[in-house]
Each structure stands twice: as structure tokens, then as C-alpha cells.
Write a structure and sequence with these properties.
single chain; 136 residues; alpha/beta; Rossmann fold; 7-stranded mixed sheet; 7 strands; globular; disordered N terminus
Length: 136
């Protein structure tokens, strides 16, 4: 499991993605990898299996643009490490992984943001449809 690690002379932060963050790059054309590099320098992206499961459901049950975005998101997450957590609820899995890894969560879900911040977990979110912001 990737915790905060020294990567060269930088601290490598674990960034946990939720489904809204993954879909964000297709909805708003945000290059969140470049934005993460701007905010964190060095990072390691992980995706909870519960989030992958959410995307699979969207890809199967939705139609039109939502279905296409979910399918594209599923292809994108193949580039990142997936982490299995005991719970099937994505928000709960994200919270547990963030606590265990001392990670940062990338999300656009307002309720999840509030919950994470109440547990003192830093959150990265979309601001102005083009840039990411870090809230601690």
C-alpha cells in the first residue's frame, strides 16, 4: 500500500479517486493529473474497487452520454492501482482508505467532502470547471 513516501526529494501523497472525480475529466475536460502535480508535486493515484463497481453499474444501466462517459471512465481506471476494501459502499471505502494511507481524496461530491473534512482528511475538488483546489 502506498502511504506518504519520499520520492526523490518530494513526499509522494496517495490520492484516492471517487467516481465523480473520474467522470469530471470527461465532463469538464480537466487534466487532473497535471492539476494534481501542481498541487502536490509527487503523488500516487488509487481507485477503490467499490468506485470501479459504481462505474460498472453506470456503464450498464445508463444510456447515451452518461453510458459513454462511464465506459470511458472504466478504461481510464485501468491505468491506476485498485484497492479492495471490505465494504461495498464507495464513500465508506474511500474514507477507510484515506484514513489508512493518510491520503488525499479527489472528489466533486459535496456530501462526501463534508464527511471527509469532518474526519480531517484533505480533499481536492474542482473549482471553476478548470482547476483543482485543495481543502484541508
Amino acid at each position: 500500500m502506498a502511504f506518504d513516501r519520499v520520492w526523490g526529494d518530494k513526499i509522494r501523497k496517495t490520492v484516492i479517486l471517487d467516481s465523480s472525480a473520474i467522470l469530471m475529466c470527461f465532463e469538464f475536460s480537466v487534466d487532473w493529473e497535471r492539476e494534481l502535480a501542481r498541487l502536490l508535486d509527487a503523488f500516487h493515484i488509487v481507485v477503490p474497487c467499490a468506485v470501479v463497481h459504481e462505474l460498472q453499474i453506470l456503464a450498464e444501466q445508463e444510456s447515451g452520454q452518461k453510458k459513454k462517459k462511464a465506459q470511458a471512465a472504466l478504461k481510464l481506471v485501468c491505468n491506476y492501482e485498485t484497492i479492495d476494501e471490505v465494504t461495498r459502499a464507495a464513500d465508506e471505502a474511500i474514507l477507510k482508505i484515506a484514513q489508512r494511507t493518510n491520503g488525499v481524496v479527489l472528489t466533486n461530491d459535496k456530501e462526501l467532502r463534508k464527511r471527509l473534512l469532518s474526519h480531517h482528511i484533505p480533499v481536492i475538488f474542482l473549482r471553476g470547471k478548470k482547476r483543482l483546489a485543495l481543502e484541508q
